[in-house]
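LOG
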Amino acid sequence: MKYALCAALLLTLSGCVTMSGDYEVTVQDASGVPIKKLGKYIAHGHNIYPIRNAFCLNAPGGTVIIRDIATGKELSGESPYHCR
Protein backbone atom coordinates (compact mmCIF):
# COMPACT_ATOMS: atom_id res chain seq x y z
CA MET A 1 0.00 0.00 0.00
CA LYS A 2 2.86 2.35 0.87
CA TYR A 3 4.45 1.82 -2.57
CA ALA A 4 1.16 2.38 -4.36
CA LEU A 5 0.69 5.69 -2.53
CA CYS A 6 4.22 6.81 -3.41
CA ALA A 7 3.72 5.84 -7.06
CA ALA A 8 0.40 7.71 -7.24
CA LEU A 9 1.97 10.81 -5.67
CA LEU A 10 4.91 10.67 -8.08
CA LEU A 11 2.63 10.36 -11.12
CA THR A 12 0.49 13.25 -9.90
CA LEU A 13 3.49 15.51 -9.37
CA SER A 14 5.03 14.66 -12.73
CA GLY A 15 1.84 15.87 -14.41
CA CYS A 16 2.40 19.31 -12.90
CA VAL A 17 5.65 19.83 -14.79
CA THR A 18 4.42 18.59 -18.17
CA MET A 19 5.11 21.23 -20.78
CA SER A 20 2.68 22.07 -23.53
CA GLY A 21 2.62 24.55 -26.35
CA ASP A 22 4.70 25.11 -29.44
CA TYR A 23 8.18 26.60 -29.29
CA GLU A 24 10.72 27.89 -31.81
CA VAL A 25 14.24 26.76 -30.95
CA THR A 26 17.29 28.55 -32.40
CA VAL A 27 20.98 28.84 -31.52
CA GLN A 28 23.46 31.73 -31.46
CA ASP A 29 27.24 31.71 -31.27
CA ALA A 30 29.11 33.15 -28.28
CA SER A 31 28.91 36.67 -29.74
CA GLY A 32 25.13 36.51 -30.20
CA VAL A 33 25.06 35.96 -33.96
CA PRO A 34 22.48 33.35 -35.09
CA ILE A 35 24.01 30.17 -36.48
CA LYS A 36 21.90 29.90 -39.61
CA LYS A 37 23.45 26.67 -40.90
CA LEU A 38 21.83 24.83 -37.96
CA GLY A 39 18.43 26.32 -38.78
CA LYS A 40 15.47 26.82 -36.50
CA TYR A 41 13.08 24.18 -35.32
CA ILE A 42 9.54 24.05 -34.03
CA ALA A 43 9.03 21.76 -31.05
CA HIS A 44 5.92 20.81 -29.12
CA GLY A 45 6.13 20.67 -25.34
CA HIS A 46 8.97 18.68 -23.83
CA ASN A 47 10.44 17.96 -27.29
CA ILE A 48 12.51 21.13 -26.89
CA TYR A 49 15.10 19.17 -24.92
CA PRO A 50 16.39 16.82 -27.65
CA ILE A 51 16.58 19.77 -30.06
CA ARG A 52 18.41 21.88 -27.48
CA ASN A 53 20.87 19.05 -26.86
CA ALA A 54 21.46 18.56 -30.60
CA PHE A 55 22.20 22.27 -30.98
CA CYS A 56 24.68 22.11 -28.11
CA LEU A 57 26.45 19.11 -29.65
CA ASN A 58 26.86 21.04 -32.89
CA ALA A 59 27.60 24.46 -31.39
CA PRO A 60 29.57 24.11 -28.13
CA GLY A 61 29.68 27.47 -26.37
CA GLY A 62 26.53 28.58 -28.17
CA THR A 63 23.32 29.90 -26.65
CA VAL A 64 20.00 28.19 -27.35
CA ILE A 65 16.95 30.45 -27.49
CA ILE A 66 13.51 28.91 -26.93
CA ARG A 67 10.51 31.13 -27.74
CA ASP A 68 6.82 30.45 -27.26
CA ILE A 69 5.29 30.75 -30.72
CA ALA A 70 1.97 32.05 -29.38
CA THR A 71 3.46 34.89 -27.29
CA GLY A 72 6.89 35.44 -28.83
CA LYS A 73 8.40 35.42 -25.32
CA GLU A 74 11.34 33.32 -24.24
CA LEU A 75 10.51 30.29 -22.13
CA SER A 76 11.44 31.31 -18.60
CA GLY A 77 13.72 28.93 -16.77
CA GLU A 78 14.82 27.27 -20.03
CA SER A 79 15.91 30.14 -22.27
CA PRO A 80 18.52 31.32 -22.86
CA TYR A 81 20.42 28.06 -22.38
CA HIS A 82 24.20 28.27 -22.55
CA CYS A 83 25.85 25.21 -24.07
CA ARG A 84 29.02 23.89 -22.44
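LOG (cont.) second protein
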Amino acid sequence: MTVPPATPSCQYFVLTFYLVVNRVLRFLWQAQGKLEIGAAVPLTVELDRSSPVPLYYQLAQAIEAAIRDGELAPGDRFENELALAKRLSLSRPTTRRAIQELVDKGLLVRKRGVGTQVVQNPVHRRVELTSLFDDLARAGQEPTTTLLDYQVGPPEEDVARELNLALDREVVSIRRLRCANGEPLAVMTNYLPVEIAPDAEELESSGLYQSLRARGVHIRLARQRIGARGATRAEAQLLDEKPNAPLLTMARTAFDDSGAAVEFGNHCYRASRYYFDTTLVDR
Protein backbone atom coordinates (compact mmCIF):
# COMPACT_ATOMS: atom_id res chain seq x y z
CA MET A 1 0.00 0.00 0.00
CA THR A 2 1.41 3.38 -1.02
CA VAL A 3 0.92 6.23 1.41
CA PRO A 4 0.20 9.49 -0.43
CA PRO A 5 2.48 12.43 0.42
CA ALA A 6 1.20 14.89 2.97
CA THR A 7 -0.40 18.01 1.52
CA PRO A 8 1.02 21.45 2.51
CA SER A 9 -2.06 22.11 4.66
CA CYS A 10 -1.59 18.77 6.43
CA GLN A 11 2.11 19.46 6.98
CA TYR A 12 1.25 22.88 8.41
CA PHE A 13 -1.32 21.31 10.76
CA VAL A 14 1.18 18.71 11.97
CA LEU A 15 3.86 21.35 12.59
CA THR A 16 1.42 23.62 14.42
CA PHE A 17 0.13 20.70 16.50
CA TYR A 18 3.68 19.70 17.41
CA LEU A 19 4.61 23.21 18.52
CA VAL A 20 1.46 23.54 20.61
CA VAL A 21 2.03 20.16 22.28
CA ASN A 22 5.66 21.08 22.92
CA ARG A 23 4.62 24.30 24.68
CA VAL A 24 1.91 22.54 26.71
CA LEU A 25 4.33 19.84 27.85
CA ARG A 26 6.87 22.44 28.90
CA PHE A 27 4.19 24.25 30.89
CA LEU A 28 3.18 20.99 32.61
CA TRP A 29 6.81 20.11 33.37
CA GLN A 30 7.28 23.52 34.94
CA ALA A 31 4.09 23.12 36.98
CA GLN A 32 5.22 19.68 38.21
CA GLY A 33 8.72 20.88 38.98
CA LYS A 34 10.30 18.62 36.34
CA LEU A 35 11.61 21.55 34.33
CA GLU A 36 12.69 24.61 36.26
CA ILE A 37 11.90 28.00 34.81
CA GLY A 38 15.10 29.10 33.14
CA ALA A 39 16.38 25.52 32.86
CA ALA A 40 17.93 24.29 29.63
CA VAL A 41 15.35 23.19 27.03
CA PRO A 42 15.91 19.68 25.60
CA LEU A 43 15.66 19.42 21.83
CA THR A 44 14.80 16.36 19.75
CA VAL A 45 17.37 16.00 16.96
CA GLU A 46 17.60 13.35 14.26
CA LEU A 47 21.04 12.88 12.71
CA ASP A 48 21.88 10.82 9.63
CA ARG A 49 25.23 9.27 10.47
CA SER A 50 25.49 7.65 7.02
CA SER A 51 25.20 11.01 5.26
CA PRO A 52 28.28 12.75 3.82
CA VAL A 53 26.99 15.97 5.45
CA PRO A 54 29.12 16.64 8.57
CA LEU A 55 27.36 15.89 11.85
CA TYR A 56 28.13 19.34 13.27
CA TYR A 57 26.37 20.93 10.27
CA GLN A 58 23.33 18.64 10.60
CA LEU A 59 23.10 19.54 14.28
CA ALA A 60 23.46 23.28 13.60
CA GLN A 61 20.75 23.11 10.93
CA ALA A 62 18.38 21.25 13.28
CA ILE A 63 18.88 23.78 16.07
CA GLU A 64 18.45 26.70 13.66
CA ALA A 65 15.20 25.18 12.33
CA ALA A 66 13.90 24.82 15.90
CA ILE A 67 14.66 28.50 16.54
CA ARG A 68 13.08 29.68 13.27
CA ASP A 69 9.96 27.54 13.82
CA GLY A 70 9.45 28.74 17.39
CA GLU A 71 10.22 25.44 19.14
CA LEU A 72 13.05 27.31 20.87
CA ALA A 73 11.88 30.77 21.88
CA PRO A 74 13.94 33.91 22.55
CA GLY A 75 15.33 33.74 26.07
CA ASP A 76 15.24 29.93 26.27
CA ARG A 77 18.35 28.40 27.77
CA PHE A 78 20.00 25.81 25.57
CA GLU A 79 21.71 22.61 26.65
CA ASN A 80 25.42 22.92 27.32
CA GLU A 81 27.65 21.25 24.78
CA LEU A 82 28.73 18.47 27.16
CA ALA A 83 25.16 17.37 27.97
CA LEU A 84 24.15 17.65 24.32
CA ALA A 85 27.13 15.60 23.18
CA LYS A 86 26.36 12.86 25.72
CA ARG A 87 22.66 12.73 24.85
CA LEU A 88 23.27 12.55 21.08
CA SER A 89 26.38 10.31 21.32
CA LEU A 90 28.53 12.95 19.66
CA SER A 91 32.00 14.21 20.39
CA ARG A 92 32.25 17.42 22.36
CA PRO A 93 34.15 19.23 19.53
CA THR A 94 31.23 18.38 17.19
CA THR A 95 28.60 19.95 19.45
CA ARG A 96 30.89 22.88 20.24
CA ARG A 97 31.33 23.64 16.53
CA ALA A 98 27.58 23.41 15.88
CA ILE A 99 26.77 25.79 18.72
CA GLN A 100 29.52 28.19 17.65
CA GLU A 101 28.04 28.28 14.13
CA LEU A 102 24.78 29.58 15.61
CA VAL A 103 26.55 32.00 17.94
CA ASP A 104 28.33 33.43 14.87
CA LYS A 105 24.95 33.76 13.11
CA GLY A 106 23.52 35.67 16.08
CA LEU A 107 20.92 33.01 16.92
CA LEU A 108 22.52 31.89 20.19
CA VAL A 109 24.51 33.82 22.76
CA ARG A 110 26.82 32.62 25.52
CA LYS A 111 26.41 34.43 28.84
CA ARG A 112 28.69 33.92 31.82
CA GLY A 113 26.78 32.45 34.75
CA VAL A 114 23.72 31.76 32.58
CA GLY A 115 24.88 29.50 29.77
CA THR A 116 23.79 29.48 26.14
CA GLN A 117 20.53 31.27 25.30
CA VAL A 118 18.36 31.80 22.25
CA VAL A 119 18.40 35.45 21.21
CA GLN A 120 15.80 37.55 19.43
CA ASN A 121 15.55 36.98 15.68
CA PRO A 122 17.78 39.40 13.74
CA VAL A 123 16.07 42.53 12.46
CA HIS A 124 15.42 42.15 8.75
CA ARG A 125 15.38 45.46 6.94
CA ARG A 126 14.76 45.90 3.23
CA VAL A 127 16.74 48.64 1.56
CA GLU A 128 13.81 51.01 1.21
CA LEU A 129 13.13 54.60 2.19
CA THR A 130 11.93 53.85 5.71
CA SER A 131 13.12 54.59 9.23
CA LEU A 132 14.36 52.00 11.71
CA PHE A 133 11.55 52.99 14.11
CA ASP A 134 8.92 52.28 11.44
CA ASP A 135 10.59 48.99 10.41
CA LEU A 136 10.68 47.69 13.99
CA ALA A 137 7.06 48.65 14.64
CA ARG A 138 5.98 47.00 11.37
CA ALA A 139 7.82 43.80 12.36
CA GLY A 140 5.90 43.63 15.65
CA GLN A 141 8.89 44.59 17.79
CA GLU A 142 8.82 47.35 20.40
CA PRO A 143 11.19 50.20 19.48
CA THR A 144 12.50 52.40 22.29
CA THR A 145 14.89 55.31 22.15
CA THR A 146 17.42 56.79 24.55
CA LEU A 147 18.50 60.30 23.65
CA LEU A 148 22.27 60.49 24.17
CA ASP A 149 22.95 64.01 22.90
CA TYR A 150 21.07 66.98 21.42
CA GLN A 151 23.00 70.07 20.34
CA VAL A 152 22.47 73.16 18.22
CA GLY A 153 25.38 74.82 16.45
CA PRO A 154 27.25 75.36 13.17
CA PRO A 155 27.85 72.22 11.10
CA GLU A 156 31.13 70.49 10.32
CA GLU A 157 32.23 70.77 6.70
CA ASP A 158 31.06 67.27 5.70
CA VAL A 159 27.62 67.85 7.28
CA ALA A 160 27.27 71.26 5.60
CA ARG A 161 28.18 69.68 2.27
CA GLU A 162 25.62 66.87 2.64
CA LEU A 163 22.85 69.29 3.65
CA ASN A 164 23.94 71.95 1.14
CA LEU A 165 24.20 74.57 3.89
CA ALA A 166 26.56 77.45 4.53
CA LEU A 167 28.98 76.93 7.41
CA ASP A 168 27.37 79.78 9.39
CA ARG A 169 23.92 78.12 9.33
CA GLU A 170 22.81 76.30 12.46
CA VAL A 171 21.97 72.61 12.52
CA VAL A 172 20.67 70.28 15.20
CA SER A 173 22.82 67.21 15.88
CA ILE A 174 21.05 64.29 17.53
CA ARG A 175 22.62 61.11 18.89
CA ARG A 176 20.34 58.26 19.99
CA LEU A 177 20.45 54.63 21.08
CA ARG A 178 17.69 52.55 19.49
CA CYS A 179 16.57 49.32 21.16
CA ALA A 180 14.26 46.54 19.97
CA ASN A 181 12.29 44.79 22.72
CA GLY A 182 14.70 46.25 25.26
CA GLU A 183 17.83 45.00 23.48
CA PRO A 184 20.30 47.60 22.09
CA LEU A 185 20.41 47.55 18.30
CA ALA A 186 21.82 50.76 16.82
CA VAL A 187 23.58 54.03 17.60
CA MET A 188 22.28 56.79 15.35
CA THR A 189 23.61 60.30 14.73
CA ASN A 190 21.49 62.67 12.65
CA TYR A 191 21.86 66.27 11.50
CA LEU A 192 18.98 68.53 10.44
CA PRO A 193 18.47 72.22 9.67
CA VAL A 194 17.39 73.86 12.90
CA GLU A 195 14.15 75.13 11.33
CA ILE A 196 12.63 71.67 10.93
CA ALA A 197 14.26 69.71 13.78
CA PRO A 198 11.95 68.03 16.32
CA ASP A 199 12.26 68.81 20.03
CA ALA A 200 14.48 66.59 22.17
CA GLU A 201 11.56 65.22 24.20
CA GLU A 202 9.66 64.22 21.07
CA LEU A 203 12.53 62.05 19.84
CA GLU A 204 12.36 59.79 22.89
CA SER A 205 8.80 58.71 22.09
CA SER A 206 8.67 58.66 18.29
CA GLY A 207 10.86 58.11 15.25
CA LEU A 208 12.66 60.94 13.47
CA TYR A 209 10.84 60.49 10.16
CA GLN A 210 7.53 60.25 12.00
CA SER A 211 8.24 63.59 13.70
CA LEU A 212 9.24 65.18 10.39
CA ARG A 213 6.02 63.99 8.74
CA ALA A 214 4.05 65.59 11.58
CA ARG A 215 5.78 68.87 10.69
CA GLY A 216 4.80 68.59 7.03
CA VAL A 217 8.24 67.42 5.86
CA HIS A 218 7.83 64.49 3.48
CA ILE A 219 11.01 62.66 2.59
CA ARG A 220 10.85 61.58 -1.03
CA LEU A 221 14.36 60.45 -1.94
CA ALA A 222 17.57 59.42 -0.20
CA ARG A 223 21.18 58.69 -1.11
CA GLN A 224 22.56 55.89 1.01
CA ARG A 225 25.93 54.19 1.57
CA ILE A 226 26.26 50.89 3.48
CA GLY A 227 29.52 49.64 4.97
CA ALA A 228 31.07 47.76 7.87
CA ARG A 229 33.69 48.37 10.57
CA GLY A 230 34.66 47.43 14.11
CA ALA A 231 32.96 48.97 17.14
CA THR A 232 34.72 51.62 19.17
CA ARG A 233 34.87 51.14 22.95
CA ALA A 234 32.08 53.68 23.46
CA GLU A 235 29.85 52.03 20.82
CA ALA A 236 30.58 48.56 22.20
CA GLN A 237 29.51 49.66 25.67
CA LEU A 238 26.25 51.12 24.36
CA LEU A 239 25.46 48.10 22.17
CA ASP A 240 26.46 45.43 24.69
CA GLU A 241 29.20 44.17 22.38
CA LYS A 242 32.95 43.68 22.67
CA PRO A 243 35.30 46.41 21.36
CA ASN A 244 35.97 45.95 17.64
CA ALA A 245 32.88 43.71 17.25
CA PRO A 246 31.54 43.89 13.67
CA LEU A 247 29.06 46.68 12.96
CA LEU A 248 27.05 47.50 9.87
CA THR A 249 27.12 51.19 8.99
CA MET A 250 24.80 53.37 6.98
CA ALA A 251 25.23 56.98 5.89
CA ARG A 252 22.09 58.55 4.42
CA THR A 253 21.17 61.95 3.03
CA ALA A 254 17.41 62.44 2.68
CA PHE A 255 15.61 64.92 0.40
CA ASP A 256 12.06 66.30 0.57
CA ASP A 257 9.46 66.85 -2.18
CA SER A 258 11.23 69.98 -3.41
CA GLY A 259 14.60 68.23 -3.67
CA ALA A 260 16.11 70.02 -0.66
CA ALA A 261 18.35 68.01 1.68
CA VAL A 262 16.57 67.80 5.04
CA GLU A 263 18.51 65.17 6.99
CA PHE A 264 21.94 63.54 7.08
CA GLY A 265 22.52 60.50 9.24
CA ASN A 266 25.38 58.23 10.30
CA HIS A 267 24.16 54.99 11.87
CA CYS A 268 25.87 51.84 13.11
CA TYR A 269 24.08 48.54 13.78
CA ARG A 270 25.01 45.32 15.56
CA ALA A 271 25.91 42.86 12.79
CA SER A 272 24.76 39.98 15.00
CA ARG A 273 21.24 41.44 15.22
CA TYR A 274 20.69 43.26 11.98
CA TYR A 275 20.99 42.85 8.22
CA PHE A 276 19.97 44.62 5.02
CA ASP A 277 18.00 42.85 2.28
CA THR A 278 18.15 43.85 -1.38
CA THR A 279 16.55 42.51 -4.55
CA LEU A 280 18.61 42.69 -7.74
CA VAL A 281 16.94 42.67 -11.17
CA ASP A 282 18.63 41.88 -14.47
CA ARG A 283 18.08 44.59 -17.06
